[in-house]
Structures are given as C-alpha cells and as structure tokens.
UniProtKB/TrEMBL annotation:
Family: Belongs to the hyi family.
Database matches in SUPFAM superfamilies: Xylose isomerase-like (SSF51658)
Keywords: Isomerase, Pyruvate
Residue positions of the active site: E137, E234
Domain Xylose isomerase-like TIM barrel stretches: 21-250
GO BP annotation list: glyoxylate metabolic process
Pfam families, per the entry: AP_endonuc_2 (PF01261)
InterPro entries linked: HyI-like (IPR026040), Sugar_Epim/Isomerase (IPR050417), Xyl_isomerase-like_sf (IPR036237), Xyl_isomerase-like_TIM-brl (IPR013022)
Protein origin, superkingdom: Bacteria
Isomerase found in the keyword field: yes
Protein name listed in UniProt: Hydroxypyruvate isomerase
Length: 251
C-alpha cells in the first residue's frame, strides 16, 4: 500500500510550522512535505520531524522568495547559472533533512530553446548527485500562467530525453484534471514514470472526495498499479484540517 504524507504548507496552518509535524502524525500521516522550507533552520526542521516520527518526503527547488517570486528557472534560457546555484543550495538543504524527493521547477518559458535548456539543466542536476531522486511536475496554466511544463505528455517526452534513472514524474491529481480533464486516464498512461503523488479534489482544490474526481476508482488504480511511494495531501481545507480528514481514514 502507498503511504500518506501531509503537505505542511497547506495543512495544519492554524499551528506554527514546527508544531505541524506532530499534528500530522497524530492525524495519521507518516510523512510530510513543505514546498519551500528555506526560511526555517535545517536543524529545527530535522528535529521536529524526528520528534514526531515522520519522514521528510519532498520539497521544491529553487529556493525563491515565494510571495510573488519566480516559479523556478530550469527551463529559462539565460538563467542557467542562477538555476544551478539555487539547485546546489537546495540540494545541500535536502541532504541535511534526508529529503526523499526534490522537485525541480521549470519556470516560465516556451518554445524549443526553453525545452533544450530544461533538458540540459535536468541532465546536469541528475548528474550532480545520482543518489537523490528528482521530480518534475506539470502545472496548469490557469494557476501558473506561462509555466513551461504544462502537459503530462510533454513531461513524459522530457523524461525520455533526459534518460536519467534518478528523475521521475510528480503526479498531481488536481493539475492532471485541470490540464487533461481526466486525472484517471493521465495516471493510467503515465503510472510507470511516477515517483510521487499529490492529491486534492477538483475544481476547488479541497479535500479528496469533495469534488468531481472519483477518488475511490483512482486510489484503486494506484494500488493496482503496484505504486508503493508516497501520496501527499496537498489541498486547502474547507474548514480546519482535522475536520476534513475523513477521506484519509477511508483511503
């Protein structure tokens, strides 16, 4: 069976960040992810995870000032040196936390030059540390206007072109539904490439089983495919986090 993680950027936000680890474990999660943990001390984050008994599953790179800041640089021609410097910083941070996956964000770009830039940066990043698992995640252009990686089919082509064993697909159910209007078929096409899953319902990005996606069928398909990675809850709770966790207890 897959294991469930809590995205602490979205969940338990009524608590200070370092208290969210224990709250996630009490709620039944065994892993956590934070999109951009760089404003907190590595030592404090590691201690909070260890004390709560949860695994640190994923974070994003690069480390920007996220409020109104860029969404990555990996596919932006001319920003190669910035991407690589930021990646090295994120890699050091992730190693200290024992991160399972490091998500490489593409940024805003388009066209063949951006594609070549993305591929070359990913090849460089994969070679930087062959023991670190990297992911790429398609994102819809309504929420992320201008984002280069805006299709799961494009992501599959990029993964084949890079051809690195430590690079895989990050399958976000909400984005799959927004982009292709059928998250289940996206999963069925690309399941062998998936390293990490994030779940929220559609169209409002709340708790699973609260919208239009058939999560019973999707979870069954994920299990039937033999997926043994993490499934992370990345959604905005309708009210409090605790009040909306019925889906987890029935998953």
């Amino acid at each position: 069976m897959a294991r469930f993680a809590a995205n602490l950027t979205y969940l338990f936000t009524e608590l200070p960040m370092l208290q969210r680890f224990a709250a996630a474990r009490r709620a039944g999660f065994h892993g956590v992810e934070i999109l951009f943990p760089y404003d907190l001390a590595v030592k404090e984050l590691a201690q909070a995870a260890q004390a709560a008994g949860v695994e640190f599953v994923l974070m994003n790179t690069p480390p920007p000032n996220w409020a109104g800041g860029p969404r990555g640089f990996a596919a932006e021609p001319g920003n190669e040196s910035r991407f690589r410097g930021d990646f090295d910083r994120a890699l050091r941070f992730g190693r200290a936390l024992g991160i399972k996956h490091l998500h490489v964000m593409a940024g805003k770009a388009q066209g063949g030059l951006a594609r070549r830039c993305f591929v070359e940066n990913l090849k460089w990043a994969c070679a930087r540390d062959s023991h670190v698992s990297l992911t790429i995640e398609p994102m819809n252009r309504n929420d992320m206007p201008g984002y280069f990686l805006d299709s799961f089919d494009l992501a599959a082509e990029i993964l084949d072109e890079v051809g690195a064993p430590n690079l895989g697909l990050q399958f976000d159910v909400y984005h799959a539904q927004m982009i292709h209007r059928d998250a289940l078929s996206v999963w069925q096409r690309h399941a062998p490439r998936v390293r990490h899953i994030q779940v929220s319902d559609w169209p409002n990005r709340h708790e699973p089983r609260q919208g239009d996606i058939d999560f019973a069928e999707l979870f069954h398909s994920i299990d039937a495919a033999g997926y043994r990675g993490w499934i992370s809850a990345e959604y905005t709770p309708r009210s409090s986090t605790e009040a909306g966790l019925r889906w987890l207890r029935s998953a």
